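Lecture notes, part 5. Sequence design as translation. It can be helpful to think of inverse folding as translation between two languages: the language of shapes and the language of residues. The source text, in structure tokens, appears below.
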């Protein structure tokens, strides 16, 4: 059985504060310094999001927060957050190709969608995770070419988001999660992938940084991402600074997608997931080769759920790309499970849809994905609108949403108008 996220508690930083300013200013660091105490150091800032990261003595954090809450120029002030590392469920590594590449695509009906499109390389999907092994044979052709090293590392402020290996108590470990995630997206579509590293695995335990995540989402949107997958682990409750990043992504035309998380619990709100445009829970299937649903007890036991869930997707029994520890062999594949599989599947479908119509608004794209999902008999809090269906979504996007035509029948001129997708049976 997979470990649950609630067994690895969320941490709030005791020496880092995130400050969001109320109004745009010319110099965020200078303004943040002006509203904080003399002993507070401004260590980073994001001019686009109008926020700063401050370092403070642990004993002074509570009093400093109280001061900042009373400042009219401060929209939000609170501790930076660190979310638990992703589940380590890699399974056995194998050399060669992905022997089960058809499982996830078949469940979401992607092969039928491929008759229309395999995904356009001009459409970019950014993956906020632990970095992608961008030279992996199964991913190299999908990587975004317009950015140096195909992305950025916001943990180490490094322009190369390549995953690394390290030794923890004699055990060599590797930052594999981002590469596994990328493999799921690449199974669904041939859109370009952008690697946004927001996870610090070099500490041994590994954590996703809230500050890195907001910077990563903003950077992805600023660098042309059409879809932003925030594939980090979730915790109960929302984090206000992340709303700023999502709002900016929306203004740039980028939709955000996130997994529901793996605590196996019903929540009212889940960090990142309920703040993104689409939150994805995970379906359990008795036979992973078949999308048939047998009963109501089909939500994966590890999947979070609640009113925030928009759609459900498969998240178990799949194989995906894996970066080899130590480099031998260079390219591996591994087992993978969790809501971190489900959300990439939906991101891939979004890529197919946008490839058909890149003029869709975020609301239109979300509506297509949700309205074409298939009801599998679960309560709404578990499935949202249902199991995503790539073929139905692509067909909807490929059909005129408004228009008219003139026809002649037995000498009579007939006008036909429509204001919603027109489906024509062949």
């Amino acid at each position: 059985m997979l470990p649950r996220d609630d067994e690895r508690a969320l941490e709030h930083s005791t020496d880092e504060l995130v400050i969001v300013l109320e109004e745009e200013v010319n110099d965020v660091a200078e303004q943040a310094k002006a509203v904080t105490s003399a002993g507070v150091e401004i260590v980073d800032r994001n001019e686009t999001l109008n926020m700063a990261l401050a370092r403070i003595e642990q004993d002074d954090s509570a009093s400093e927060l109280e001061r900042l809450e009373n400042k009219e120029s401060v929209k939000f002030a609170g501790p930076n957050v660190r979310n638990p590392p992703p589940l380590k469920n890699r399974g056995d590594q194998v050399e060669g190709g992905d022997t089960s590449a058809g499982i996830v695509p078949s469940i979401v009906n992607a092969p039928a969608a491929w008759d229309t499109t395999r995904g356009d390389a001009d459409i970019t999907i950014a993956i906020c995770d632990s970095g992608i092994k961008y030279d992996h044979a199964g991913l190299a052709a999908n990587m975004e070419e317009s950015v140096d090293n195909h992305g950025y590392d916001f943990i180490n402020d490094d322009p190369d988001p390549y995953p690394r290996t390290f030794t923890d108590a004699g055990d060599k470990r590797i930052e594999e999660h981002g590469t596994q995630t990328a493999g799921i997206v690449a199974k669904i579509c041939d859109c370009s992938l952008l690697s946004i590293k927001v996870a610090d695995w070099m500490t041994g335990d590994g954590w996703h940084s809230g500050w890195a995540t907001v910077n990563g989402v903003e950077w992805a949107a600023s660098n042309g991402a059409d879809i932003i997958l925030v594939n980090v682990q979730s915790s109960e409750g929302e984090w206000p600074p992340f709303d700023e990043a999502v709002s900016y992504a929306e203004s740039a035309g980028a939709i955000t997608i996130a997994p529901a998380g793996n605590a196996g619990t019903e929540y009212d709100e889940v960090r990142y997931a309920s703040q993104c445009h689409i939150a994805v829970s995970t379906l359990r299937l008795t036979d992973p080769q078949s999308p048939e649903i047998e009963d109501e007890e089909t939500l994966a036991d590890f999947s979070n759920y609640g009113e925030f869930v928009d759609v459900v997707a498969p998240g178990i029994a799949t194989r995906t790309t894996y970066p080899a520890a130590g480099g031998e062999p260079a390219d591996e594949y591994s087992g993978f499970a969790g809501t971190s599989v489900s959300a990439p599947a939906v991101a891939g479908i979004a890529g197919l849809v946008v490839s058909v119509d890149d003029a869709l608004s975020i609301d239109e794209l979300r509506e297509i994905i949700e309205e074409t999902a298939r009801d599998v008999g679960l309560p709404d809090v578990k499935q949202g609108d249902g199991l995503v269906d790539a073929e139905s979504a692509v067909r909807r996007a490929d059909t005129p949403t408004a228009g008219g035509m003139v026809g002649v029948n037995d000498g009579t001129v007939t006008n036909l108008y429509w204001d919603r997708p027109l489906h024509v049976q062949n």
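The translated text above is only one of many valid answers, since several sequences can fold into similar shapes. The two ends are 46 Å apart (CA to CA).
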